[in-house]
Write a structure and sequence with these properties.
mainly alpha; 4 helices; about 85% helix; about 0% strand; transmembrane; membrane; transmembrane helix
Length: about 100
C-alpha cells in the first residue's frame, strides 16, 4: 500500500475540514475531519522528523486554520483555505523530507 505524505494529509485536512463544514452545514463535523487529519499528520511528522518538529508543524497547522478566517475576509473562503493548506504542505515537506 502506498504511503500518503504527511504534507498531503495536512493540506487535505485543512481543505477537507472546510469542505465538510461548508457542505454539511455542521461546523463540528468539519472540526472532526480537521482534527483527524491533523492527528495522522502529526504522527507521521513525529515519526519522520521527531517530536520537536511534530510540535512545530502541529502549531503551524492550527495557526493555518485560525489564520484562514481573517484571510478569507480579504481574498475569499476557498482561496484562503487553499493558501494556508499550501503553506502547511510546503512547511511539512521542508521539515520532513529526507535526502535519498
Amino acid at each position: 500500500m502506498a504511503k500518503i505524505p504527511a504534507a498531503a494529509v495536512a493540506a487535505g485536512g485543512l481543505v477537507g475540514g472546510y469542505g465538510v463544514a461548508r457542505w454539511t452545514k455542521k461546523r463540528p463535523l468539519g472540526g472532526v475531519a480537521l482534527a483527524a487529519a491533523g492527528s495522522v499528520a502529526a504522527y507521521e511528522w513525529n515519526r519522520r522528523a521527531g517530536a520537536r518538529a511534530a510540535a512545530g508543524l502541529t502549531v503551524a497547522y492550527v495557526a493555518a486554520f485560525a489564520g484562514s478566517h481573517p484571510l478569507a475576509k480579504k481574498i475569499g473562503a476557498w482561496p484562503a483555505v487553499f493558501t494556508v493548506a499550501g503553506g502547511v504542505a510546503a512547511a511539512s515537506w521542508a521539515v520532513t523530507r529526507r535526502d535519498a
